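Inputs:
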Amino acid sequence: MSLRILGSLVLVSLLAVAFVSARGEKVIRPADDRFAAADVQEIPDFRRHVLPLLGRLGCNGRSCHGSFQGQGGFRLSLFGYDFPADHQALAGGDSPRADVAHPADSLMLYKPTHGDEHGGGQRMEPGSWPARLIHRWIESGARGVEQGDPEFVSLEVTPREVVFTGNGEQSALRVTARWSDGSVEDVTPLCRYQTNDESIAEVDEHGVVSSRGRGDTHVVAFYDSGVAVSQILRPVSDRFGSAYPTVATPTKVDELIVAKLRMLGIVPSEVCSDGEFLRRVSLDMTGTLPTPDEIEVFIADTSPDKRSKKIDELLTRPTYVARWTTKLCEITGNSTKHFDDNAPSDEYAMHWYEWIARRVRENVPYDELVAGIALGRSRRPGESYRDYVEEESGFYRENDPLDFAARETMPYYWAKHTSRMPEERALNFSYAFLGVRIECAQCHKHPFDRWTQADFKGFTAFFEPIGYGVPPDDKKLYQAMIDELGDKGNQSQRVRARLTRAQRGEIVPWLEVFVAPPGARVEKGRIVNDAEAAVPRVLGGDEIAPEFRDDPRQALVNWMRRKDNPYFARVFVNRVWAEYFGVGIINPPDDMNQANPPSNAALLDHLTGGFIEHGFDMKWLHREIAGSQAYQRSLRANETNRLDEKNFSRAVARRLPAEVLLDAIDQATAGSAELARAATDVEQRAIGPQGGAFVGRRRYNDYAATVFGRSPRDANCDCSSSNEPNLLQAIYLKNDKELVQALETKDGWLHEIQQQISKADRGGTAIDTAALIEEAYLRTVSRLPTAAESERCAAHLEQIGDPAEGLYEVLWALLNTREFVTNH
Amino acid sequence: MTTHRYCDGIGRRDLLRVGALGAAGLCLADYLRLAEAGEVSGDGRRAKATSAIFINLAGGPSHLDSFDPKPQAPVEYRGEFTSMATNVPGVELCEHLPKLARCADKFALLRGVSHTLTEHQMGTKYMNTGNRPLPSLEFPGYGAVVSKELPSPPDLPPFVAIPKTPQVAGVLGVEYAPFSTQGTPRPGQPFTVRGITLGRDLTAKKLQRRHELLGDLDAGFRADEENSGLLRGLDRFSQRAHEILSSPRSSRAFDISQEPESITRLFPEDSLGQSCLLATRLVEAGVRFVSVDHGGWDTHDHNFEQLQGKLLPELDGGLAGLLTALDLKGLLETTAVFVTGEFGRTPKVSTNRVGRDHYPRAMFVILAGGGMRGGQVIGASDARGEAPASGAGISPDDVAASFYHSLGIDAREEYRTPTGRPVSIVRYGSVVKELFA
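Outputs:
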């Protein structure tokens, strides 16, 4: 009997074992059921059944045959997605592991059923359904994947949500896979399963979930390239469902959060005080402490909508622009050390910052802002090299410089020498703008996500034609201009010399970001013809249409800006959320992998949808988040939300980010003139261009920034910036020379007080130390002292006998409180 | 850089409950109070080591050109160096390690240590934790575990990194993060760690006065501590920083200029040598764990030139000095020493670049002191240094279990996250018996 006839027989038998699902679809019954009978006639499929089964048995895991060296001379592709290679490894060669002539003696059947002769031990019982399935596959010819075989379409798990009430309760998941020929199979016994928190739920190899603790998590099923999740929940108190108290939900955000809390029996904390709100929102939104005057005015304000008015006002401040420009510089990896000697690195980094800052200030839609970076190239269409260098030189001119921020695109993102390879660019890009970590798929199927090497390759192809170097079509002109300058020295000295000329108004040559023509790619800054270049393909989508071949990035940007793009808007929304709550709705905030689902999908959907609906309006997003009651909750926990750190039922204390904390120290110790400029003057601030652009340059404050965990911007991870405390930070705050300097500077507040006190002494008047103690509190922890605190501080002044020194120590102590170094 | 990927819902600021102590009814505060006593109790303790020094050879040292020479292998494998005899019969080292050859009786050499992670960061994590990295969990580095498990004097940082370390506190929480010196000492110069030496007007008495004021003003958050690992951690660091600043012990411990000449002359004047000198001094003062970072081992190009000209002589002098000085001070028995890179290097020399690439299948590890028997080679790689000579070789997990064993730490002990997730100190791996035979 030929294989083809056998194949059609199989189909008939498959239909015979199908049942009808709730959706009215025929669902093929699970393999453990179909292969239970000894006389089964069905021929299993390599991709659909054999490989998933091997995956489930752990054969292609990292510690077994999926290791890059293989194991015992037998290697499978890691997490099983290289079908030809895996088929070759099993059925190819002179003595294949799948022996069609003697199926029962096949190594792939013998070894895993006989533990004593298998390094990996016994993986299945002889005569069990998995053994039978493999046996049937071998005896029917051990067919691999062939051209025209159906493609995997999607994976679904039911139930999508399980609510337990007690320990040890169980629920069986059912997982179905859909294929491009329209067939749907119950693949429950063929999946790998994972729980995201074993202390809440466990899952066994049959997909049976058991409750292990209170709280919520997800269980994930993996099959082929599909990933499906089910939310597992068990209330943490008995106040859930109908027993849940009435909780006000003034905004859609609150409604969605409370809906989840109600299921969990978590009662949110009270709304925080006005003072707490003002400090919190000022730090999160503008990276800046409120000034004493501002606090007093806000507290005294009796209008009911003063919080939303404050939010609106903060969004107009230069500090808002600086804070979020710096965040975008962090995500896009703006650092002076990313440019090589060919580029004036400080100037590039500063231009980069200013270009983004302009757009944040003008509230340019986020998609447009990113498009300007993603499509960055030095020349406008049709612009000559000579015109380009004239313009570029003009940006550096000291007299009446041209405005770099007015450029339509920001090309320097593509000029980083730390990511010249298309693969590195693919990783940078997907991290920064999609929150997708495709590193794994560079070498093998992603273990927790759908990505395969083909996806990685297709995505990388977008970046193949992008180059940074000498103008490809005007090399001679470039060289002639260089020769004419005749500057001497090494590369960086010559670049500095060129920069100096440009600053004086001369026109000098520059390297450029360019796009290679269709059919070519860029290698080491040069255009190379490559007829076999891979066709770019967006993640999880189609190959790009031919009309984009001039600059394939345009197709990528179009895809990102589509309403149904699953990543672009979503990761930005999630990142902004995480800045306000200290934890993302998806966490870590930059990890959008399918096995890492949001803690509140409806909430993230709502915000993402709204953000797109409002034309990617960043300020809308900030208002929506900061205006919610969820954001304005108190730190004080109750019995039900004590342990909650991911469902937004209370405020969670967060150490201030490095830049914000260093600025806060400066502001708290600043003289009154400088303090008055705190909300508007960002030039010298760590959250401003100093920190936003000059990361990596040796600067005075580099030490503190490093100790407090400022992102070095050299890795594709939001976690590069750390808000964790450590011993050196504590020592810095108590005794570092910079801290002492901040306290003792001649322009500082303490110096001013000293003078006031001397003056009062000379005039024989008394100084109001109580008012100064109050001001110290307002400057640091943004509130007035309690009566007890006032007394304690007054006693300290008394004890020392010198009010100036006493206030010095009060301010020192306040800078060291947890209340100061955290946002809460 | 620390990374925090907790797909499993463990918050980055969560602290672990004290594993075994938790069961005995002690809360964290009790435990800390006990720990503040600062002494590792000798009663009933079978382990010898009370502190540890970890030398991280960042980049991945070539095993064939250092501690696992293959003089019989074809030249494209054995490379440009020959081997030399040591003071232990039958044990040979590369010719450029003469000082270590003279004190080979002081350390155990593990060969054929094997893993499969060929990328720097992953390999580094594996070798610095004893656990193959997982995306869902940040395993704590050795220093974090040791400083958690062994109490240390309150006026010294428990875990010092010279000048930095890839070991992070991970799931243990920020309290156990390293104290990084950010710089390395220079010969004969007092080495002060920034911030540790009191400013010119700041006396210990003033500091104490300020500290008391701070204690009273910082009371506002006390009620919220229970629900926030961050608030507890901040407080703990603040206390510790105060102890360190108010006692002269720390600044004295860091001041290598106070070492007698009989000790300083054992160390080369380069930064590794002086870092090793500082490490011995810190351990002597009571620091529990010192890590020393020595980079440059990523010799894809000019392998032999770099090794002979710089890397091997530095390591030879620094490590030999360390072992000898510890011995002279009578500290070798109580100090476990661990030297490793993230992997070895390809046995076959790449001809065009005269280099060797990443190769984790047959690396070496050095363990010494802390009751681990020196003067022996354990394990072996095959004839060309391509794989363990037999079986799977020694795993990094086994090395970890042994290292912890010498410190009296049970590697199988499980911590629990606040949500109850069990995390054992070393997930796999068992003690290499020969070390303690």
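Remarks. Chain A touches chain B through 75 residues (CB under 8 Å). Residues 1-16 of chain A have pLDDT under 50 and may be disordered.
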